[in-house]
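Handoff note, outgoing to incoming analyst
You'll be picking up this chain. Sequence as last confirmed:
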Amino acid sequence: MEEIQILNKFKTTVFLFLLIFFSSFVLSCTSAKIMKDADRSFEDDNEEFKKLVKIESLPIDESSKKIPKPEVLIMPAKKEKKAELKAANISKSSSVKIENKSPYKQKADENFVGRRPAIDPFVAGEKVVLAVKGQVGWLSKDAGEIVLSMAPNNLVNNRVAYNFLINAYTTSAFVENFYALDFTSKIVIDYENEVPIYFASRSIEKKSIKENIEFFDHGNNSVFQWKSEIKQGDNHDFEKIKKDKKSEADWENKVREDGSTNKEEARGSYRKVSRNTWSVAPFSQNFFSVAFYLRNFDLIPGQSIKINYTDDSKNGSFEAKVLRREKLDTVLGVLDTVVITPEFPAEGKYKPKGKFYIWMTDDDRKFIVKLDVKLKYGQFLAEVRSIAHGER
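Most recent structure output, in case you need it:
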């Protein structure tokens, strides 16, 4: 019982963090895995968002193979100089060449052309499944899975965009006694400039549904955010809301224009919506997009990569330190990997607790194949179970 009590102390900070760090961000639910469907559209439910963002499909032959070559700013051939790109508005349909100076000292010989690497690490159809395990003392339990995948590219505000998905969910009945989780998220990243355009997530827990949408207006260096939370009351048909987000029980509880809580006493539940906006530094990444952005770099041991970073209205600098190369034993065989440790700003919703390490394949794809979070009371591991490379 002592080990179980210890596990309960850090389950919400570690397990939640680990399961939402990547893939497509975190849903808590019953064994039905209600929101694991990658085809669900978060964006369609928000009228304000739809006014800001126009989403269209690319022609089939372009969405996965023949991506239009973007106009880029070629870096000068001078050594040891910081790369510079010109600022413009990513939220408009005009050709975009953005950026002031990045905090990372990008050298001319680092295989970049403008903001893009010479070899694109991302391929539509790619999918990495990680098995999550938690350990406290002698107690070791399988906890869940993290799935990182990529859907075909599309057009967002007339810009070609990557579509990354992160799904995370518990698979262990033992763990679900403490914290059942089923989370899904979408990260849409500009193809040319490698910055997030928008992020959307949905998390279902036993007594609440939480949604988050963030739109990045890089031209104005700002982020618009919408949050929604539905909490269960004693007389509310919460299972119906889980199955049908647009049900009458969900949507008849309207939200006041100022975004304050509007309680629906008759049903014993309420919906709370909040809106927020804040300024960010040029080329800022968020907690989820930074994991994909790192795959663009060569990741040489001893290298330190600093990236402008924003997390729930808190800004700072994210730093990834490349520690070493390592031969990693996995269920897929021995993989050549590089090990990095990320350092997040002091403030932020998703800042991890304890020591955190990431293993990425040492090739031109940089798949994430292992996560290790070491804590005072134990350890959480996520190790690769399968990899689908997709087709170029």
